[in-house]
Design goal:
Layout lengths: L1 E5 L8 E5 L9 E8 L3 H7 L16 E8 L11 E4 L2 E3 L5 H4 L10 E2 L19 E4 L1
Antiparallel strand pairs: 1-2, 3-4, 3-8, 4-5, 6-7
Length: 135
């Protein structure tokens, strides 16, 4: 369990929540978050001004932190590395767009928060939290 700040409804202010992060998989890193920016898109999403907001909504996609754990197949990052996470946490990695470094155009792109995922709670939770696990 980790602490986060999120909203439980569009009309509620952000509040301290406890959320569950998935375990670190073979291709993942766990990041202790030091900083997370506040973007207008975070506010629009939390307030359900854009379609599809799921609650609780934990926004935040401008993340800076230190790697604290790496999966056994991770070689590019090491414990202690300073890293950043933007608005995308995953993609298919195999389509033409991904192979050209244009993951933001991937039809299977996964956003940092409020995007479907097989892990509980069924969608991504963002960087207004103590840590995050990402591929």
């Amino acid at each position: 369990m980790t602490y986060a700040y999120g909203a439980t409804a569009a009309t509620n202010p952000l509040e301290k929540l406890t959320i569950q992060r998935r375990d670190v998989g073979h291709h993942d890193v766990k990041i202790d978050i030091a900083y997370c920016g506040v973007c207008h898109s975070d506010i629009h999403q939390v307030r359900s001004e854009w379609d599809g907001t799921q609650y609780p909504c934990v926004p935040g996609h401008e993340i800076v932190g230190r790697v604290t754990e790496v999966g056994k197949h991770v070689s590019k990052f090491h414990v202690g590395d300073l890293v950043g996470v933007g608005c995308i946490v995953d993609s298919c990695r195999h389509c033409t767009d991904c192979e050209e470094g244009l993951e933001n155009y991937c039809d299977n792109m996964v956003g940092t928060y409020n995007f479907p995922t097989p892990d509980a709670p069924g969608y991504t939770l963002g960087g207004y939290s103590q840590h995050i696990v990402v591929p």
